[in-house]
Amino acid sequence: MLSKKCKYAIHALIYLTERYEQGPVHIQEIADKQRIPKKFLEAILLELRNANVLHSKKGKGGGYYLYKNPEEVTLLEIIRLMDGAIAMLPCVSLNYYEPCEECKNETTCGIRDSFIGVRDETLRILTESTLAKIVKREKILSKA
User: Which of 17, 35, 66 is the last residue of a domain?
Assistant: First the structure.
């Protein structure tokens, strides 16, 4: 399950994607339009800026804007930044591997084998889900 932090990050990034190349967006606008507590949003946006997903501009006309092209930012990247591991079990995680305490033999574990498939399919879907594709899909669905 995604954390509140991760969900807020995704919604804020979608909002900025809809305004891509229109200049910086003030944090208060993002907070108001996406119903995200401003203090929480500040921490999230700072983390995304430190990861070079966003940049910010200070002063009059300042705010946050996407540093990366929306075609390049995937849900996989956002989820890993905000929540860490994608895999449902630590023994199948690519970046956060840990052996399972209950496992007798990892190489023959049928449970692990099943969850490797779940992990691989999840990674494929999240990698294909870019900010640009999400915004495009929302526009198509809102017209239907």
Answer: 66
Backbone angles phi, psi at 104, to 5 degrees: -90, -40
Tell me whether residue 140 is in a domain.
Answer: no
Helices (H), 51-106: 75-83
- Which range marks the domain in which residue 34 is found? 4-66
pLDDT tens per residue, range 69-97: 999 999 999 999 999 999 999 999 988 89
Length, in residues, of the chain: 144
Residue 143 lies in a domain: no
Q: State the DSSP string of 81-124.
A: HHH---SSSGGG-SSS----SS-S-GGG-HHHHHHHHHHHHHHH
Do 47 and 14 lie in one domain? The reply is: yes
- pLDDT tens digit sequence for 7-42: 999 999 999 999 998 999 999 999 999 999 999 999
Contact between residue 92 and residue 14 where contact means Cβ atoms under 8 Å apart: no
pTM over 0.85: yes
Is residue 141 included in any domain, yes or no? no
Based on the fold, state whether residues 45 and 79 are members of the same structural domain. Answer: no
Question: Are the beta carbons of 76 and 123 closer than 8 angstroms?
Answer: yes
